[in-house]
Amino acid sequence: MAQPRLEVRNLVRRFEGRAVVDDVSLTIEPGNVTCLLGPSGCGKSTTLRMIAGVDMQDSGSIHVDGTLVCDTVFRIPPERRAIGLMFQDFALFPHLSVGENVAFGLKGAGSAKKARATELLDRVGLGHFIDEYPHQLSGGEQQRVALARALAPRPRIMLMDEPFSGLDNRLRDGIRDETLAVLKEEGASVLLVTHEPEEAMRMADEIALMRGGKIVQRGAPYNIYNAPADKAAVAFFSDIN
Ligand code: ADP
Ligand code: MG
């Protein structure tokens, strides 16, 4: 089988003696969307922060494309991990145009940066906004610009932490579908954190179900939904229909 894009092995993070991430292992295959799904407080964001490199594990290791990114003695800093980030608060730079926002993290000649920004903005359907400023856009449009910005440098992995939770309910399903289409067109490998089973069912190639700091089940959405590992998993899925 091909080498996983991301491999997390036996990750542990303790706060005040309590393991909030408790021996988490997971892999992401290239081009896949994996959803880390679980109730609030189960350790999803802490896991993501360690992969991003903004927090450090107490034990365990992380590899990207087979290369060690960090273990307990070695650590590549966040800015050298080729990881794209998108959080609920996806703040664009207000003083930069939409195009400048998308080009912000890019290196190289101005013309190449502009070409890539244009490509990404076209992909999210906002090419005509390239010279506008963030405050001129709706919340959903700003979200799409943030997605374009995160994807522009072609990150090896996209980490998304509840990226849709700040959006109006009426917009959310449409934006989820559009986002998924863009991620697939770009061939991005994604770890998306959510506490909403419906979101994971809609977007994931694979779900890793987390509870109390542990991954309790992994598999295709359909399989997990149809055969939850235990009563708690059944209850967790019961509010979707
Ligand atoms: P989730 O993203 O699944 O909602 P988190 O990873 O944010 O969960 O948090 C998991 C647990 O770790 C929670 O109980 C939270 O209060 C605790 N926690 C997170 N960060 C810290 C911290 N810096 N110091 C102490 N406890 C923390
Ligand atoms: Mg969280």
Give a quick summary of the entry.
This protein is of the alpha/beta class.
Description:
One of its GO terms (cellular component) is ATP-binding cassette (ABC) transporter complex. The protein has 241 residues and is an alpha/beta fold. The chain has 8 helices and 10 strands. The chain has a 6-stranded mixed β-sheet, sandwiched between helices. The chain has a 4-stranded antiparallel β-sheet with strand order 2-1-4-5, covered by helices on one side. Strand 7 (157-161), helix 5 and strand 8 form a beta-alpha-beta unit. It binds adenosine-5'-diphosphate (ADP) and magnesium ion. The site of magnesium ion has 3 residues, from helix 1.
- Any ligands, ions or cofactors bound here, and which? adenosine-5'-diphosphate, magnesium ion
Could you say which overall geometry the principal axes of the C-alpha atoms support? Answer: globular
Radius of gyration: 18 Å
The termini sit apart by 35 Å
Number of helices: 8
Determine the fraction of residues in helical runs and give it as a percent range: 25-40%
Please tell me the overall pLDDT: 93
Which structural class fits the helix and strand makeup?
A: alpha/beta
Beta content: 25-35%
Q: How would a textbook summarize the main sheet? A: 6 strands, mixed
Oligomer: single chain
Query: Order of strands side by side in the largest beta sheet?
Result: 6-7-8-3-9-10
Say how many strands there are: 10
Low-confidence stretches: none
Q: SSE order in H/E notation?
A: EEEHEEEHHHEHEHEEHH
Organism: Alloyangia pacifica
Protein name: Iron(III) transport system ATP-binding protein
Keywords: ATP-binding, Cell membrane, Ion transport, Iron, Iron transport, Membrane, Nucleotide-binding, Transport
GO molecular function: ABC-type ferric iron transporter activity; ATP binding; ATP hydrolysis activity
